[in-house]
Amino acid sequence: MKPYQRQFIEFALNKQVLKFGEFTLKSGRKSPYFFNAGLFNTGRDLALLGRFLCRSVGGFGYRFRSAVWSGL
Length: 72
What we know:
Rossmann fold, 3 helices, 72 residues, two-stranded antiparallel sheet, EC 2.4.2.10, orotate phosphoribosyltransferase activity, PRTase-like, 2 strands, elongated, alpha+beta, glycosyltransferase, Orotate phosphoribosyltransferase
C-alpha cells in the first residue's frame, strides 16, 4: 500500500466516514463496512480529498497543465 493510500484510510477513519460492523445497505445487502462520504463536510476535508485524488490519478501517469492543479 502506498503512503497516500494509508493516509486516506486513516483520514476516513478519523472522520468516521469509514466504519466497520454489520450494516444493511439501502439495497438490502449486508456489508461489513459503511462509507459515508457525506461526512467529508468541511473545506479542509474537500481539499484533502482533492490531494488524495491527485496523488491517485498521478499514479496512472496523467499530466495536468491547468493552473488549478499546479498548486497541489
